[in-house]
Each structure stands twice: as C-alpha cells, then as structure tokens.
Design brief:
The complex is a heterodimer of chains A (213) and B (265). Chain A is built from nine helices and no strands. The N and C termini of chain A lie far apart (53 Å). The longest helix of chain A has 31 residues, at 122-152. Chain A is 81% helix and 0% strand. Chain A has a single domain (2-212), classed as MetI-like (MetI-like fold), CATH 1.10.3720.10. In chain B, helix 3 (117-128) packs across helix 4 and helix 3 (117-128) packs parallel to helix 5 (162-174). With 265 residues, chain B is of the alpha/beta class. Chain B has a seven-stranded mixed beta sheet, sandwiched between helices. A four-stranded antiparallel beta sheet of chain B has the order 3-2-5-6, with helices on one face. In chain B, 49% of the residues are buried. The chains are: A mainly alpha (213), B alpha/beta (265).
C-alpha cells in the first residue's frame, strides 16, 4: 500500500509543475491577448478574437496531440512536458484573456477619468491605477480556473507526462488495484485544490474593498 | 448689471489682462444628439463661477469638454495659453499641457481604492511633477492638514466618509498646483452635513484666490461663494450674471422657472 501511495505521489510534483507552467504561460499570453482585444484598431482586435475562439473551441486533448505528435515529431522536438505546458498554456491564455477583459469592464470608468485628469501617462494609468484593481477583480476567477486546470492537467498523461494520473494508471496496471489507486489519486487532487481555494478566499476578502466598481 | 446670454460678455476683472480660460463656440454632439451648442465662456484668474441648470442641460459636459475628457466636436478651448481646437485633433503634448493647468473634482470622488489616502495624493506628484516620494508626501500631508484630514493619511479611502473622500479628492487635485479647478457636482452624492464640510473647503479655496468653475445644485453656495452664475438649459447658456442679482431676479424665462423650482424644492 505504501508503495502504491509513493508511486502515485511521484506524479504530484509534475502535476504542480505542469499547472504552474501553464498558468504562467497563460497569464502572460492572456494579458497580451486581452490588450489586443481592447485595442483601438481593428486588426489586433480581430486577431485576438480569432485566437481566443480557436484556443477555446478545440478540445485540450486534440491540442496536446497536435503539439506533441504533430509539431513535436515533425517540426521541432518537444518533450511531453513542454508540449503539455504549451498546449494547456495556450488554452489558459484564451480563458485568461476573457477573465481580464471582464475585470477591465468591472472597473468604474471614473477611475480612468481621474487618472487622465491627473495627467498620468498611459503606462502609469495602467500600472498604478487600473492594473492593480483588475488583478483584484480577476483573482477569484483565476483561482477557480487554476483549480480546473489542476484537474484538467491529467489529460497530459495521454502524451506521457508522468504526472499524478499517469502514475495512477501505471500503478493500477502493474498491481491490478483499481479502486484504491484511483481513490488515492482523487484524494490527492482534492488536497492539491484546497490551498488554492483557501488562498483565493482569503485574498478575495482582503482585496474586495479596494476596487472601485 | 444683469445680462442675458445673447448680450452678455462679462467685462474682464482687470481690463487688458488675458482671460485664464476662454471657451469659444464649444459644441458637443453624439451622433445626431446635441449635448452642447455654441457655448462661450471666459474666466479671469481668481474668479469663481457657478453653473446651474436642470439635469441634461450640458453642465457636466461643458466641464468635461474644458479638460478634454470629452473632446468637443466644435469650438475652441484656451487655457493659460494652450489652445485646443476641435477643428484639428489635439496632440498628446497639447492635452498634457492643458491638463497640467486644470484640476477636476468628480461627483463620485473617484479616489483610487487600492491606494492609501496619502498615496492617492502623492502618486501624480511623483509621476507627473517628478517630485521624489519624500517631497510628494510632504506636500500631501500639508494638503491633508489643510482639508482637516491629516489623521487619515494611512487609511484607505473605503474607511473614510463621503465628505472626507471628497476633501481628499480636492487635495489630490490641488497637489498638482492647477490654475483652474473644475468641480462637477461635488456635493450631490453627499448628505447635507457632509456637503457642508466640502463646501467649507471650497469656500476657503475661493477665498485663497483659486479660479473655480463649479457645477452645483446648491443655491446658497452658488450665491454666497461664486462671483458669477451661469444658467444652462438644453446645451446652451441661457443666462449669466453676478451671483446675487441673478439668483434674486433672473431675467430669462428658463432661468426664472429653474430657480423657482430650486426654491420650491
């Protein structure tokens, strides 16, 4: 039993790493997509809308196969982990862009006006005034998405990322234990989600008062 | 001397001195909807002018056209030598030069909720006037003391009453040393007692020689603090004149009706 547990536990760092890497890629790329989406000119706006639609409409597993077996085999060599992080990262980017866009819309227009009236430059308006409030509004949604991503990262087991679900599958194949192995895996996912949820609630309560809506 | 809009051109306080603010034939249109039409207004340094009038008469839009929060679709705004003409797009340099000289106080305060009261006032000093943090904070503390809120410096705006927030917003605008202060219904969101404390600060500012253009519904304030009152209706100035006389005996039909309604309220 200890051996089973240890084998599955070996996948947990990979689950965490894959989730974190996808979130990082997704947040940066999502911010860029959101900026394009809110741009004054039509071209970046349309491009962003197209990219967001594409990333969100295609099932994650198709994306991962496309990147790992397609791009990874024929164009440039990619490890399973890199393929998983890129694939899930791009899907995350599309969702993040929409989360950010909603958060922007939630900021009271008076905040922009006050910033402009005070003659703050565009960069300062964004970094000092609007950005911090957008992050506060977006955080709960980002945390919810992160928990979803943590679970969905299990799809990367299909391209050979040795994360929790991958380990559980192989342990169950090896030991012919099904019920307990997957119960343990499920429990581990719950345990991993709890800190994100708790952190999100704390941040939300703490930050909620500091946004003008 | 009373004047109706058509014949009025208030004589400059000191003849020969150029007006601080010159608004010429300014109009604002959203599609076919006309919000402002051919508004002329001129203000001398140190003058306090109140704009009154029914909702939707274009009072706020006029203020927002002056600092270009809403770019006018017609006419010209000149403030302390900076000219913005609706006929050609304003450059960023022009907008910066203009806004450098004009502060604005909003009905809904618009303090930055994620910054402390002190940071609210210091931020633009550092970014725009390039003061270092220590200098900026010193100026902010002086201003907070002036509006009676030095003890709130380290609080967040959400911990302050509406009246306090508005006084902080005034301090924030003053920190950039504007030549003209615009007030857009600064007490409309406040209950009467809190409105009084904001009025006290504004009265002191006026006595200190600040040039102020104030959109308000407070008759007493318009009458006692401003030198001149402008009545607007349907996007136009229908009447203007020295405060006391105009408030007592308006000449235009529209002005009479509006002031009567204010009194009956």
């Amino acid at each position: 039993m200890t051996e089973i547990l240890l084998s599955i536990l070996a996948g947990v760092p990979w689950t965490i790493a894959l989730t974190a890497a996808s979130l990082l890629i997704g947040t940066v790329a999502g911010a860029i997509l959101c900026a394009m989406r809110l741009s004054g000119s039509a071209l970046p706006r349309l491009a962003s809308a197209g990219i967001i639609l594409t990333f969100r409409s295609i099932p994650p597993i198709v994306w991962l196969f496309f990147i790992f077996f397609g791009i990874g085999t024929n164009l440039l060599p990619l490890s399973p982990f890199a393929s998983g992080a890129i694939g899930l990262g791009l899907i995350t980017a599309a969702n993040m862009a929409e989360i950010f866009r909603g958060a922007f819309a939630a900021i009271h227009p008076g905040q922009w006006e006050a910033a402009r009236t005070l003659n703050l430059g565009r960069v300062s308006q964004m970094l000092d005034v609007i950005g911090p409030q957008v992050v506060r509004v977006a955080l709960p949604s980002i945390a919810t998405y992160a928990i979803g991503l943590l679970k969905d990262s299990a799809v990367a087991s299909t391209i050979g990322v040795t994360e929790t679900a991958f380990q559980a599958y192989h342990v169950s194949q090896r030991t012919f234990h099904g019920l307990d192995v997957y119960a343990i895996a499920g429990l581990l996912y719950i345990l991993l989600s709890l800190p994100i949820a708790a952190l999100s609630r704390r941040l939300d309560l703490h930050l909620r008062a500091k946004v003008a809506r | 001397m009373l004047a109706t809009a058509k014949e009025s051109r208030i004589a400059p306080a000191t003849p020969g001195e150029p007006a601080l603010l010159q608004v010429e034939k300014v109009g604002k249109q959203y599609g076919a909807h006309v919000v402002l039409e051919g508004v002329d207004l001129s203000m001398q340094t140190g003058e306090v002018v109140a704009i009154i009038g029914p909702s939707g008469s274009g009072k706020s839009t006029l203020l927002r056209c002056i600092n270009q929060l809403e770019p006018p679709t017609r006419g010209r705004v000149t403030l302390a030598g900076t000219v913005i003409d609706a006929a050609r797009p304003a450059s960023n340099a022009d907008l910066t030069a203009l806004r450098r000289n004009v502060g604005m106080v909003f009905q809904s305060f618009n303090l930055f909720p994620h910054l402390t009261v002190l940071r609210n006032i210091s931020l633009a000093q550092e970014r725009v006037m390039k003061r270092d943090r220590k200098q900026a904070d010193e100026v902010s503390m002086q201003l907070l003391t002036r509006v009676g809120l030095a003890d709130k410096a380290s609080q967040y705006p959400s911990r302050c009453s509406g009246g306090q927030q508005q006084r902080i917003a005034i301090a924030r605008a003053l920190a950039l040393e504007p030549k003209l202060m615009l007030f857009d219904e600064p007490t409309s969101a406040l209950d009467p007692e809190l409105g009084l404390e904001v009025h006290a600060v504004m009265r002191e500012l006026a006595e200190g020689g600040m040039t102020m253009l104030v959109v308000t519904h407070e008759m007493h304030f318009a009458e006692s603090v401003s030198d001149r009152v402008i009545i607007m209706a349907d996007g136009k100035i229908v009447e203007e004149g020295p405060s006391r006389e105009l408030m007592k005996s308006p000449q235009s039909e529209r002005g009479k009706r509006f002031l009567q309604a204010l009194k009956d309220r």
